[in-house]
Specification:
With 367 residues, the chain is of the alpha/beta class. It has a single domain, classed as 3-Layer(aba) Sandwich (Rossmann fold). Strands 3-2-1-4-5-6-11 form a 7-stranded parallel beta sheet, with helices on both faces. Helix 1 packs across helix 2 and helix 4 packs parallel to helix 5. The longest helix has 22 residues. The two termini are 19 Å apart. The relative contact order is 0.14. The structure holds uridine-5'-diphosphate (UDP). Uridine-5'-diphosphate (UDP) binds next to helix 6 and strand 8.
Length: 367
């Protein structure tokens, strides 16, 4: 791995979990969705810990079927084994397993509307298969990647949204295959905890972004940036009044590791950044500004039903729980995070657009 931004990111995550990470000493970690955006960060962080922190390295086993994941960030080695498999089908693994990170999923609306049933299968059957494995292997900890989408289109009274909010979700709408399957995934986790004492934890990420996302992921930040580099205007869907909060990968991964390595079994935690609720028009202006306003903003209608008919109006987490219970604190502001994402993409894909040079000299904080 040579990408400068990623190297800095991985070091930052490892430093922010320096006390907790010792729990991984000599253990075996199974991750599903290891070739996806979040999975890659987990693998790179565990690999970094193996090389720089742990006395005895941990063994990493990754499962991915590459339905949306593209590749692994490192090659196989004595501590890193990969299995090509669809987790919605049962799997037998001979190794002992101490930790399970259940991160397989199809999270981008463009992809979950394309792979409608697969999205349900991975969140429900995939999660159940991993819970069965966790039960058999008597793991120390199991983390399930749910989503802030379980809140649906929250009542404004419940924004910022705490974990106790039940959600405002349609069970038949355009986002239902994703939202409802994540909700059932959570129910499965809680049920395995109650019935079989599996030490589950659940995280609900709020719009996590950063290096390693596909440029054709179609979620808003990569889609804005890839359009800029193609010479297009920035596509704001609808009025651009919907808001989101964006959490850079290093902050999110710090939160995920803190939850995984905690003893808070049966608990659910929002993970995100509560400092930057921003409308999509303001986000487009922020991106235009990063490129010294050499790009235009264009209004278009949402290209698929999940945007045109069922786009949640606001999303902002209440992070009181993870802040008080785990000392979590998001650090990376939106402009810094987007510049880091752009710099990563320029290096990773060798982007030659004249706009690439515009951001070369931008000052950013290293995190
Ligand atoms: N969006 C946009 N242009 C894009 C992609 C998304 O204006 O190119 C909007 C979309 O309508 C939504 C917001 O950005 O209001 C976040 O969309 P995304 O798919 O990133 O995440 P989600 O809707 O699942 O939170």
């Amino acid at each position: 791995m040579k990408n400068k931004i990623l190297i800095e990111d991985i070091r930052a995550i490892a430093e922010s979990i320096s006390s907790e990470s010792r729990k991984l000493n000599g253990k075996t970690v199974l991750i599903t969705g290891g070739a996806g955006f979040l999975g890659k960060y987990f693998i790179l962080t565990l690999d970094y810990l193996n090389k720089n922190v742990l006395e005895k390295p941990c063994k990493i086993i990754s499962i991915d079927n590459f339905i949306t994941g593209l590749n692994y960030p490192i090659g196989e080695n004595s501590n890193f084994k990969t299995i090509k498999h669809d987790v919605s089908k049962p799997i037998k693994i001979d190794d002992d397993i101490d930790f399970i990170i259940s991160a397989a999923g199809i999270a981008s609306p463009e992809f979950y509307r394309k792979f409608v049933i697969e999205t349900i299968d991975v969140a429900v059957l995939g999660t159940k298969n991993m819970l069965e494995l966790a039960k058999r292997k008597k793991v120390e900890s199991f983390i399930f990647f749910s989503s802030s989408e379980v809140y649906g289109d929250p009542d404004p009274q419940f924004i910022p949204t705490p974990e106790t909010y039940f959600g405002n979700v349609s069970c038949i709408g355009p986002r239902a295959n994703y939202d409802e399957s994540k909700r059932l995934g959570e129910t499965l986790c809680i049920s395995y905890r109650q019935t079989h004492k599996v030490p589950v934890k659940i995280v609900r990420p709020f719009n996590v972004y950063g290096p390693g996302m596909r440029l054709d992921d179609y979620r808003v930040i990569p889609n804005f940036i890839s359009n800029v580099f193609k010479g297009n205007s920035i596509p704001v869907y609808g009025t651009g009044n919907n808001t989101r909060t964006f959490c850079y990968a290093t902050d999110a991964l710090t939160g995920f590791f803190k939850v995984l390595l905690s003893d808070y079994n049966g608990e659910v935690f929002n993970v995100g950044n509560d400092n930057n609720e921003i409308s999509m028009l303001a986000l487009a202006k922020t991106v235009a500004d990063i490129f010294d306003n050499n790009v235009k903003i264009g209004y278009v209608s949402g290209p698929i039903d999940a945007y045109a008919e069922a786009d949640p109006k606001r999303r902002c987490p209440d992070l009181s729980k993870i802040k008080t219970m785990l000392g979590y604190k998001p650090k990376v502001d939106i402009t810094t995070g987007i510049i880091r994402f752009i710099r990563w993409a320029i290096e990773e894909f060798n982007i030659k657009s004249p706009l690439a040079s515009v951001i070369k000299d931008k000052e950013i904080e290293t995190n």
